[in-house]
Amino acid sequence: MRLKTYEYIGLLIGLFIALEPSYIHPDEHFQTLEPILQWWSGYKGTIAWEFLPENASRSITILKLYYTPMLWLNDYLFHLKPVGLLYLYRIQNYLLYTVIASLFLEFCEVSITHKTKAKFFIRTSYVTWVFQSHTFSNSLETILLLLLLFVCQYCIYEVRSGKSPSFITSFWIGALISIGIFNRMTFPAFLVLPLLSVFYHCFISHWLPLAFSVISASVVSAIIIFFDTKAYNPVNGEWIIAPWNNLVYNMNVDNIAQHGLHPRYTHLLVNLPLLCGPVLILLLSKRYILKLPALSALSGVLILSLFKHQELRFLVPIVPAICASINLESFDTFIQGEVILTIWFIFNIVMGLLLGVFHQAGIISLISQFSSHDIPVHVWWKTYSPPTWIYANYNLTVSTTNFVDNIEYVENVNWNVTSNHVVDLKGSDVELLNETLTNFIKFTDSIQLILPNTVMEQLEPLRKEWNFTVDRETSQHLDLDHIDFPRWKTMKPGLKLLNVSHIIS
């Protein structure tokens, strides 16, 4: 009964966090809402490299299928501004995930008591509250994986009942595999071991349903390829196969190095503990090690660990699978259960607050104040890239830095554009900031600088030439990238928008 109460509290905490403006990683905007809003509303903004026609490494069709219904409802029913639409999507993602996770657990081959405890861990996990509510392609990947594991488990149930796999089940296995791959190239990593099990239990003696699954996957893939090709409209007339293009890009180590290279043990020794926290103490149950959820978790960790680019969010889809597979038999028998429960709550509340409430939260709060309004030059420095779709600006120009021989420049910035211009300086040094301000001041005196409080001290060398006055400020902004222990000034939360003026000597 107590676990059930905590479970409902966890659901409410998740709804609260879904309505907070935190910002975990740029890809939650630039791989989803940024391209889809530019297509739907005609806004101008940042175009991620994956969506450039010459790269075409992400499926536009998958985005349209998942995000268009809410856009249509917003246009004809809700009429929300961009930040309201963002929260609407987060609630949609969160509720959809909790429902599908419950459905997934119902067909897991575990005891009722185990299901209850697994559901508790899923609903009180900060991964559910934060990652599954945000608009990551990884969040959709989790939903698709749970649906596929549910269908695969049902397929095994059909065979054990003395039937052959139905054509509907076979169709959905093929269709979900296809949709999952076109959503994220990493999707097969979670499927290798589970699909081997399904093949052994279901298809090794039922070749016709297997053939139907293959046909289903092929037809769905062909449809997605057709619509992606229409969307990208390549000049050479070639078919656009987005997952293949993504794979080719990621096989080049030089390309991956631009996004960060990690030791191959990062997923196992760093990311997995950060996602699962104290439940890893329980380890996987020997009783359930050969069940589909455990096989999926093992498959995902092992295969994704082969690659050198290992981000935390890549393992998000295995969290519900691990919760369904851990050893919960001895959870109530001695003090270990109470200790784990206490540590679990502390761990998830802390991570939920850090990532779900405060992390880079000032960015969305600040941009939302300028939605559908003309702006001067906005120079963003030492922040995550601003999600420009929230500006809701049809005339926006976006510029950023470029690299030549690993040296950062601002050669691609058009200094003549002095209104509705967003310049993303990312983490560049103060000299490049000074160069940017110097070039813009030749054409306009309307320049605004956005930066976190953690780097305010770095402006000191510029104060002889520039005057910075605070225009807007929010304290709900946590910048973890520029903390320099033990200097306390670099730990101050908050984000400022400064009006910049040149001091005439």
From TrEMBL:
GO terms for molecular function: alpha-1,2-mannosyltransferase activity. It is an enzyme of class 2 (transferase). Keywords: Endoplasmic reticulum, Glycosyltransferase, GPI-anchor biosynthesis, Membrane, Transferase, Transmembrane, Transmembrane helix. The chain crosses the membrane at residues 94-113, 171-200, 207-227, 265-284, 339-358. One of its GO terms (cellular component) is endoplasmic reticulum membrane. It is a multi-pass membrane protein. It is found in: Endoplasmic reticulum membrane. Pfam families: Glyco_transf_22. Belongs to the glycosyltransferase 22 family. PIGZ subfamily. This is Mannosyltransferase. The lineage of its organism: Eukaryota, Fungi, Dikarya, Ascomycota, Saccharomycotina.
